[in-house]
Design goal:
Number of strands: 2
Largest sheet: 2 strands, antiparallel
Strand order of the largest sheet: 1-2
Shape: elongated
Mean pLDDT: 90
CATH topology: Fumarate Reductase Cytochrome B subunit
Structural class: mainly alpha
Low-confidence stretches: none
């Protein structure tokens, strides 16, 4: 039966909600990115797209911070048996994803403010710029943001491939531990008792 907190075998509903909402929002941010030059990003034609991108980016940042706080109080399911190099690779991959999820919104905000542009959120208005203008540095930071945006898509893709490899080849619970459990309560408890036996 699904639980709010994580168990020995599965992530809880809160951790799953953080994970899958992050997946959806990262994909949305990538798809609505105005990209290209500063002139295009801040053009009138790209205004709505830019505001949507900035709003989604702030949502991602808020969810990641909440997710880190939740991780500090929520248990983590036991790792599936695997080779040591796979465990280290998994930890490194997770750390890289968290670092990217934090760096992306920060580089976007810092780059925009250094270039002299505010952060615009629909319904909330403009914020900043709250840093002294340094246009060349801002352009460099914004360029780093663009690169990181591409890197996180590749990193997320590798993360998904690894999860599917665990599910299809190694046949462990790495993927299913992060998926909602839709089985009836009796079936869930029976399987849990068999796995712990």
């Amino acid at each position: 039966m699904p639980t709010v907190v994580s168990t020995r075998l599965r992530y809880g509903l809160v951790a799953q909600a953080f994970h899958w909402s992050t997946v959806v929002l990262v994909a949305a941010a990538y798809l609505v990115s105005p990209g290209s030059s500063e002139q295009r990003v801040y053009s009138l034609a790209s205004d709505l797209t830019r505001q949507m991108h900035e709003t989604v980016g702030i949502l991602i940042f808020a969810i990641v911070l909440a997710r880190i706080l939740w991780r500090m109080i929520d248990a983590v399911p036991e790792a599936a048996p695997m080779e040591p190099w796979m465990k280290y690779s998994a930890k490194l991959g997770h750390l890289a994803l968290y670092a990217l999820l934090i760096a992306l919104p920060l580089t976007a905000i810092v780059g925009a403010w250094l270039e002299g542009h505010p952060l615009t959120l629909p319904g909330a208005g403009n914020f900043g710029p709250m840093l002294p203008q340094a246009h060349v540095v801002g352009q460099a930071v914004s360029y780093i943001h663009t690169i990181l945006g591409n890197v996180i898509i590749w990193a997320a893709g590798l993360h998904a491939v690894a999860a599917l490899f665990h599910h299809s080849v190694l046949r462990d619970n790495v993927l299913t531990s992060m998926l909602p459990d839709w089985r009836p309560p009796a079936a869930s408890s029976d399987k849990a008792s068999r796995e712990s036996a």
